Automatic annotation (TrEMBL):
It holds the Pfam family DUF179. Belongs to the UPF0301 (AlgH) family. One of its GO terms (cellular component) is cytosol. This is UPF0301 protein B1H19_16325. Residues 96-118 are annotated as: Disordered. Residues 96-106 have a biased composition (Low complexity). Gene3D superfamilies: VC0467-like. It comes from the Bacteria. InterPro entries: AlgH-like.
Length: 213
């Protein structure tokens, strides 16, 4: 089997050609990517449901907007917490189906030492990681920079994401800690593209409806 170069911690930005309505103008943070498949969350799909409505103990730590985000079409009845620890703190742990595998898959990311991580956390990439939503929030309150709660996630089987990349469905770009907690998630697709120092910056001007161009 061809070795897969891990894209864990990168962003998948939907190209204008991507036809799947689940991922129209989506910005996906990859939480795990290897030969066995990929798992990520869509960062720019806020729902009307408040965090306080489903995970009241975590509501005070969730960034604005304080709502649950639809992380993808898989396991919509499960919750994932993604958070940033300022200063490159060691990342995070997972809650929900597939999350444990994601955490294990990223355990060696950036050569982090488990002893350096706060309880209830596992680093995914840099200062970004996954939160164990079953841990007491007060354990993490002092180190937490920002928290976002996702219902569901996006998943790809072995080789599936690679096929989509070849087909031109996604741009792959570097993530920034602020992407997780963007206060204006509806504009994240354009914002991520606009900051690229290549031809992708021009794609940010692509009209929502090409027929109106």
């Amino acid at each position: 089997m061809t070795e897969v170069s891990s894209l864990t911690g990168r962003l998948l930005v939907a190209t204008p050609a991507l036809a799947d309505p689940n991922f129209d103008r989506a910005v996906v943070l990859l939480l795990d990517h290897d030969e066995e498949g990929s798992l990520g969350v869509v960062l720019n799909r806020p729902t009307p449901v408040g965090v306080a409505d489903i995970l009241a103990p975590w509501a005070a730590l969730a960034g604005e907007p304080g709502v649950v985000f639809q992380g993808g079409p898989v396991s919509l009845d499960s919750a994932l917490g993604v958070a940033v620890v300022p200063g490159g703190g060691e990342g995070v742990v997972v809650s929900g189906p597939g999350a444990e595998a994601a955490a294990e898959g990223s355990a060696d990311s950036d050569h982090a030492s488990p002893g350096d991580e706060p309880l209830g956390w596992r680093r995914v990439h840099g200062a970004i990681g996954l939160v164990d939503l079953e841990a007491p929030p007060e354990l993490l309150a002092a180190v937490l920079g920002s928290l976002r709660i996702f219902a569901g996630y996006a998943g790809w089987g072995p080789g599936q994401l690679e096929d989509e990349l070849v087909e031109g469905a996604w741009y792959v770009v570097e993530s920034e800690p602020g992407d997780v907690s963007s206060p204006d998630p509806e504009q994240l697709w354009r914002a991520v593209l606009r900051r690229q120092r290549n031809e992708l910056a021009m794609v940010a001007t692509y009209p929502d409806d090409p027929s109106l161009n």
